[in-house]
Design goal:
By secondary structure, the chain is α/β, with parallel strands linked by helices. The protein is built from 16 helices and nine strands. The chain has a seven-stranded mixed β-sheet with strand order 5-4-3-6-7-9-8, sandwiched between helices. The protein has a two-stranded antiparallel sheet with strand order 1-2.
């Protein structure tokens, strides 16, 4: 065998034969050179090389996006392309620095070069401009990246006090219902800003209007409920969250003119309000450990009438075509947060069934990268 590779262990079963053979080939420099030269394999080799490079350079790419958002580059190009000089002046960067950032953004399809040496929005920059939630999350990643500077220590559990666990104050609080308005304000604003597109994805996948009343547990400032109310004006809306968060939801309901009810409490200890025929958990369960999730699902079961519906919506692990979101992004994010883990649909199915629900199904969403949906019925 080639060039310094250790002798591989025999495959454990016949099912391992092809992966083992493939791995030996891909790890071989001789095979890599051959694949890059042979016309039929050259496109595949180049694609794999690009994918590996993108993994190596991913942090750099994210910082290009971060700088563009911080400097409001996309907003400055909303009305049309601008010259390098104009953008350098507007962002208060020297010409060389501005050129470096803008050319980097072009390479990532955030921007495009236009006639006369000007820069305009690219397809990804335009999409980012139209989604305030993306910008909010990119800026929030400044907190996450600080916690990931030593991922091995984080994974070993050697980092006890992370910035994310302080940011999401409920994650490490022994008495989250005692958190004050200042403790919940920043993360509540982030969730409200980033929730809109997720809410629309859920409502496109599941017809909430067939229900009379929805109780959104851990519903934050009520963005999902307000989206549901716009879709189905006769829908009654109830929300349960920490007292300080529920107060923010009441203010948002009043501002929107929606007669929603917001109840404050600790869902790990307090019973959920009765009266709804559908209980929803939107981006909630993955924030918590298995024991807490079992408590929440059982509480939802007890709060629902016979025939009532459970609606779970969040990014799910091992989702085809969206694996990096559930397993990589949220796997590390929740580790840094110190609470919860991403779960696959099979894991959620098992836990939901254990809580007593039946007729469990997973309607397709248009963008599984943003959220998956699981629906079940109380018999």
């Amino acid at each position: 065998m080639s060039q310094g590779l250790a002798t591989p262990r025999p495959p454990a079963s016949w099912r391992d034969w092809w992966p083992a053979t493939r791995d030996r080939l891909l790890a071989s420099p001789r095979f890599q050179r051959w694949a890059g030269a042979f016309p039929l394999t050259r496109p595949i080799a180049r694609r794999h090389a690009r994918a590996v490079f993108d993994l190596c350079a991913g942090f750099v790419y994210s910082q290009v996006l971060f700088a563009c958002i911080q400097l409001r580059v996309f907003e400055r190009l909303r009305d049309g392309p601008e010259s390098l000089d104009t953008l350098a002046s507007a962002t208060r960067l020297p010409l060389d620095g501005a050129r470096t950032l803008l050319d980097a953004a072009v390479s990532l399809k955030l921007l495009e070069r236009r006639d006369g040496g000007r820069y305009g929005l690219g397809p990804l920059g335009a999409a980012t401009l139209g989604n305030a939630g993306i910008a909010a999350m990119v800026e929030h990643h400044d907190v996450l990246y600080g916690d990931l500077h030593d991922p091995i220590a984080l994974l070993r559990g050697e980092v006890k006090d992370t910035a994310l666990s302080r940011y999401w104050a409920y994650a490490r609080s022994a008495a989250p219902s005692q958190l004050g308005a200042d403790d919940v304000a920043e993360y509540s604003r982030l969730m409200a800003t980033s929730q809109s597109l997720v809410a629309e994805e859920i409502l496109d996948a599941y017809p909430i209007g067939q229900h009379r009343c929805v109780l959104d547990v851990g519903g934050g400032e009520g963005v999902f409920l307000l989206s549901a109310a716009r879709r189905s004006p006769g829908l009654q809306c109830m929300l349960f969250d920490l007292p300080a968060v529920a107060e923010r939801a009441r203010a948002r309901f009043a501002q929107a003119g929606v007669p929603g009810q917001a109840f404050g409490g600790d869902f790990r200890r307090d019973a959920l309000p009765r009266g709804a025929d559908v209980v929803s958990f939107v981006r909630v369960l993955h924030d918590h450990g298995d024991d807490t999730v079992r408590i929440l699902l059982r509480s939802a079961f007890e709060a629902l009438p016979a025939g009532g519906t459970l609606l779970v919506a969040e990014p799910m692990a091992r989702t085809g075509g969206a694996e990096p979101m559930g397993d990589a992004y949220f796997g590390l994010y929740l580790t840094a947060m110190g609470s919860g883990r991403p779960r696959s649909t099979d894991e959620l199915h098992s836990m939901v069934s254990e809580a007593g629900f039946r007729d469990i199904r997973t309607p397709r969403t248009r963008q599984p990268l943003q959220t998956g949906v699981l629906v079940a019925r109380r018999p």
